[in-house]
Structure formats: C-alpha cells, structure tokens
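G., the chain you wanted modeled:
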Amino acid sequence: MVVGKTDSGCWDEALKTYEARLKHYVTFETEVIPDAVKGKNVSELQQKTREGAHVLKAIKAGDCCILLDEKGTEYTSAQFAAYIGKKLHAAPRRLVFVAGGPYGFSPDVYDAVPERIALSKMTFSHQMIRPLFAEQLYRAMTILRNEPYHHE
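Predicted structure as tokens:
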C-alpha cells in the first residue's frame, strides 16, 4: 500500500518490473491510497492525518500490516528474507507493507500499526522507496528458494 501516485515514469517502470517478477512467488499488488489535497492552508500534520485516515480505512481485519519507516528495524537482505519467511508461514489474510506520503505517517497510523521496518538509515523519497522495497521483497523470495539472484 502506498500513499499517492508517482510523478515520474521511471519509478513506475521499475516497480512494474519487480511486480512481474514477484508474481511467480506470491500474490503481489500495489494499492495506491490517494494523497491528501495540498494547499497553502494545509499543514504537514493535517496532510498526514488525512492520508492516515485513508490508510487506516484500507487496512482490513486479519491483515498483518508493517510500516516502511526510517525509524524501523533494519535488516540485511538475508535477515529480511528470514523475516518474510516467518511472516508468510504465520498465514495472515494479507501481508501489507505501507509506504507513507512525503511527510510520513500520522500519529494515528503509528498507534494502529506498531510494526516497522527500515530499508536504510538514509531517507528516500516516497516514490523511490516503492521499487526499492519491491526489489528487496523479490530478493527475499529468491533467497528463501535458494535461487541464484542474491550473492553473499
């Protein structure tokens, strides 16, 4: 689940590449949550709160939801693969990873979804993180199946 559309075709194309690869392993789709209407009189907190309400509405009962957040737990690719393996064996209705908008998540989203992972200590744009995460998820699937994509 991602907040807002991308405004650059290169990120969409990269995401589509990994979406196609992932479909050989798991059901994978990107659900786009509309970003909040921006304006002169809308604060960052108001924008995050509006986007957060849309995110929380899209989460369904039984979902295992994880935020992609720079303050989350960091993993190596092998550790992330093990993490994904455990999550998939727990058999949630849906395993949902959420990438927030340009200002991150609202306090309500943080309260509702306590689990967080970080792809890096560095900050990436909310558009760039989509294909980066999809590639890491694909890499995790190949690690779990002992396929020759990942090299230690």
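The chain has a mean pLDDT of 87.

Shout if anything looks off.
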